[in-house]
Amino acid sequence: MAAVQQPRSNTFVAHIPLLRTLSKLLLIVKNLEESIKVDQLKEALTEIFSEYGTIIDLVAKTNLKAKGQAFIVFDTADSAEKAIEEIQGFELFEKPMVLDYAKSRSDATVLKEGTPDDFEMHKRRRLAEKERKQAMEAAEAAKRLKRAAPVIGNDIAARPIKAARGTGLKSSNPAGGAVVPEEYLPPNKILFIQNLPDEYGIDELTAIFGRFEGFREVRLVPGRRGIAFVEYDAEAGAISAKENTTGMGLGDEGKVMKVVYQRK
Predict the structure, then answer these.
(1) How many CB atoms sit inside 10 A of residue 118's CB?
(2) Is the pTM of this model over 0.70?
(3) Whether 34 contacts 67, CB under 8 Å
């Protein structure tokens, strides 16, 4: 059985033209059992897919949008093609897997086949596209809220709508219109952290959020427990931190931490 090869982060091969075949290295696996723990799922996928070639990256996430799917990067297009042909429909945890080529190249693929400049450009494009989609979702959510505004006589939502806001957050609409739900807020370099255990302070939160690029500081709210703000030098660091910490269980009781962007 071929071993899983860790993606290279500091050593780059000589520049190779980025060919169309690179897109054939990355597979997406769908219809996975969502109740299975990520570590257990990754172990099972590695056991199955490593039979078809060397895996240079395997990603399975726990956030709601990515649940039930995983991404696998092979070192050759032949390995990826053979895996699709032979594993398509194979049952894992009593659910048939659905395989396809992913639409975009993974970080591991670019690291393996490109130059440092290629990798930096790839990251910037990926983050920009993600931010664009999140901003569009936020705009659509705001439109839906405005369309749902009540009609009073002939005055259609002429007066500002009072909406509940998260503690310590600013309104995203200076005119006083409907407030965009926290889950749809566009990226911001400041994160708003909620549902923290009472005993969690600056040191504990720094240990969690300080490992992401551009970390600047943790700010607690005087007189308020369970909430905090975390600031980064740029939105990219905040985006990475939010993706990797949302839903994390903290404390003896395993309180689920909520991480959202601060309203601008």
Answers:
(1) 17
(2) no
(3) yes
pLDDT tens-digit profile of 126-184?
Answer: 665 666 666 677 777 777 776 665 555 554 444 444 444 444 444 444 444 556 677 77
Q: Are 112 and 57 in contact (CB under 8 A)?
A: no
| pLDDT tens, position by position, 26-46 | 888 989 988 888 899 999 999
- Residue 205 CA to residue 196 CA, distance in Å, equals 9
Residue type, 95: K
Q: What is the mean pLDDT of residues 225-232?
A: 94
Q: Which amino acid is at 153?
A: G
Q: Which are the contacts of 163, defined by CB distance < 8 A and separation ≥ 6?
A: 178, 179
Q: Which residues contact 104 (CB under 8 A, 6 or more apart)?
A: 23, 26, 126
Contact 172, 200 (CB under 8 A): no
Give which of 236, 251, 226 is closest to 124, Cα–Cα.
236
Q: Is 206 left (phi over 0), alpha (psi -120 to 50) or beta?
A: alpha
pLDDT digits (tens, 9 = 90+) for 101-118: 876 555 555 555 556 665
Q: What is the DSSP string of the chain?
A: -PPPPPPPSS--PSP----GGGGGSEEEEES--TTS-HHHHHHHHHHHHGGGS-EEEEEE--SGGGTT-EEEEESSHHHHHHHHHHHTT-EETTEE-EEEE-SS--HHHHHHHS-HHHHHHHHHHHHHHHHHHHHHHHHHHHHHHHHTPPEETTEES-SPPP----TT---S-TT--PPPPGGGPPP-SEEEEES--TT--HHHHHHHHTTSTTEEEEEE-TT--S-EEEEESSHHHHHHHHHHHTT-EETTTTEE-EEEEPP-
